[in-house]
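In the previous chapter we treated chains in isolation. Here, by contrast, the input contains two separate entities that must be folded as one system, with a combined length of 621 residues.
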Amino acid sequence: MNYSVIKGSSYVLVNAPDMIIHNGTTQTMERLLNPESEYLKALSDHIRSYDEVVNYLPNQVYIGNYSPEELRKYKQPWHDKKLADESREGKFGEIMPQDEFIALIKIVDVFDLVKLTKEFTDGVREKLKNHKLITDDLLALLKEGEEITEIEGLITDHAAEPIYNKGDLVGCVKRAHDIDPSLKAEVLFENLVSKASAVLAALHLLDKSQINLEDIDYVIECSEEACGDMNQRGGGNFAKAIAEFAGLKNASGSDIRAFCAAPAHAMVQAASLVQAGTFKNVMIVAGGSTAKLGMNGRDHVKKGLPILEDVLGGFAMLISENDGINPVIRTDIVGRHTVGTGSSPQGVISSLVTEPLDRVGLKIRDIDKYSVEMQNPDITKPAGAGDVPNSNYKMIAALGVKRGELKREELNDFIINHGMEGWAPTQGHIPSGIPYIGFAREEILKGSINRAMIVGKGSLFLGRMTNLFDGISIVIEKNYGKASESKSVSEEEIRLLVAEAMRDLASHLQKD
Amino acid sequence: MDLEIQGRVVELVEKYGAENIVVLIGGAEAEAAGLAAETVTAGDPTYAGPLAGVPLGLRVYHVVEPEFKESVDPEIYEEQIGMMEMVLDVDEIISEVSAMRNEFGQYKD
C-alpha cells in the first residue's frame, strides 16, 4: 500500500494587541455587560509588547526556533523566562506584528470592505516591502488609503467595525449588507482575519516546501469560522479563497468543520484523497481566531500575569504522493470517537489511542511521541484548566496501566518519554494535535523517532446540536520506501485469457 | 460555572426544591471543582450569573469523593471513572469540594 506523505508544514503567529481589547469575546462581552469593570480598566496594563511576544519561549517553539525538548528544559511558568534577541522568523514561519497583519487583511479583501487610513497605509507599505513573501503584486492591493474622516463616518453612520493599531484608529471593516447578521462588520472582520492569517501560513508553506504552485490540486481549510450570508451562514469556502491568494491556480478546495478536531479530520481526509490517487498534492490550512484573544484574560489579570492570549495562530501542511522519503500517514491506524463511544475519559482515550493500535498489533509504547491537545499551560493553568497536554498524557499512561502495558511506577517516565510540554496558543483548532507535525517530520527524517500519533479532540456541545464529544487520531511513521507498482495486466494477456476460456467452453460444448 | 448552567440549576431548584437535588461535579481540576461547588452552595463568586448572591446550599459532591463512589455499582464506577481516579489529584479535589459543602451546604445528611 502506498501511503501519502507529509511534505512540509508551516506555523505562523500574529501579534494582535488591539484586537484583544476590541475583538476578543471575553472583552466585548464584558464591555457590553459591565463597561466600567475593573478588568477592562486594568487590561491595557497587562498587554505585552511585540518584542515580548517574540521573545516568549512557547511562541519561539511554535515557529520552530526552539524544540519541544528544549522547552522542557525550562521550568514552568515560562512567561517570566525572558529570552532576548529572538527572531520573528523561524524555520516553520514567523511572528507577524499587528500593523503588517492589518495591511494583509486589506490585501486579501476582494470586496473593498477594508478601509485603511492613508497615513497608516504609507507607513506599513514601507515595512511590507521588506517581507520576502509579500510580492509587489500583493503589495499593490494595499492601494492608497482613505481620509480618516471617511473611516470615522463609516463607523458612526454605517456600523463599520473599527481597526485599531497601538490605540489609534487606522481603519475599518465595512458591513456587506444593511441587515444580514452574517454579513455584519464584526463577522466579516473575524473572517478576514482568519483568511489573512491562513494566507500567511500558506505562503510560508509554499515557500518552504519547494513545490510548484501549479501542482497543488486541492485545499482543505479547517478553522472554526463560518462564512456565508443569511441564507447559508456557514456556506464556505475559505479554502478556495485562501488558495486564490496563495497563487494555487489549479487547486479547488473545501472547508472541514469539527471544532478543535478539524485539523486532525483534515489530515485523515487529505491523506485518504492522496492515497486513493484522487489528488497528488493537498494543502491543509487554517488561520486564527480573533474571538479567542484574551479568552482567559480575566484570570490572567487577576493573577497579575500578562494577557498571554495575544496572538492569532495559523498553520498549513502539504500532503503529497509517496516520495519514498518523507514520513507516511498511516491511514490504517486511525482512531475515532464514534457516536457509541460515550463520554467517559476512558472510552474516549481507548477509542482514539488503543483501539487503532490494537488493530495493527501495536502497543502504547510503540508510539514514540503523542501529539495531543498541545495548549500552552502558561495560559490554561492560571485559568483553572490545568496542564492540558499533561492531563492527556496521564490518561494515556493510566490506560496503559489498566491494560497491563505499563507498570504504575512507570507512569511518569512514560509522560516524559512519550509526551511533550504544550506550546500552542489557545486558538481552538490550532493546538489540537497539529503543532507537532513540523517537529515530527524532522525527527522522523533524522531517525530519532519512528512514529507519532496525532490526536485531535473537539467539544461539539458548544454548538448545541449534540452533547457528544468528538475526536480522531492518525499515526505518522518513518517512510520505509515506496511500494513497487502492482503488476498491471496487459491487453495482450487479457486477450489470451479470454481466448483460453473460449477454447475451454468450445471443448465442453463439443463433448456435449 | 457557565452562566447558562447556573440558569439551569436555578430552574431545577425551582421545579424540584433545593432539598431534593444533589449536584455532581466531574471537572478535572480541583480549583475549578471548588468554584463550581461554591457556586451551588454560597452563590456565584464571580457575581456574573443567575446564582450571584443566591446561596442555594445544595448537596454537592465530586464523582471521585467516597460518598458518591460508595453509592454506585463498583463495576460501572471502574469502567467510567477508574482510569481518571489514577490521573486526577483526588485528595485536592476532595479537599476543595468538601470544604465548600461543609461551610455553605444547608443539607447536612
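Chain A touches chain B at residues 33, 344-346, 349, 384-386, 391, 394-395, 398-399, 401-402, 408, 411 (CB under 8 Å). The CA atoms of residues 345 and 489 of chain A lie 50 Å apart. Compare these points with the single-chain example from earlier in the chapter.
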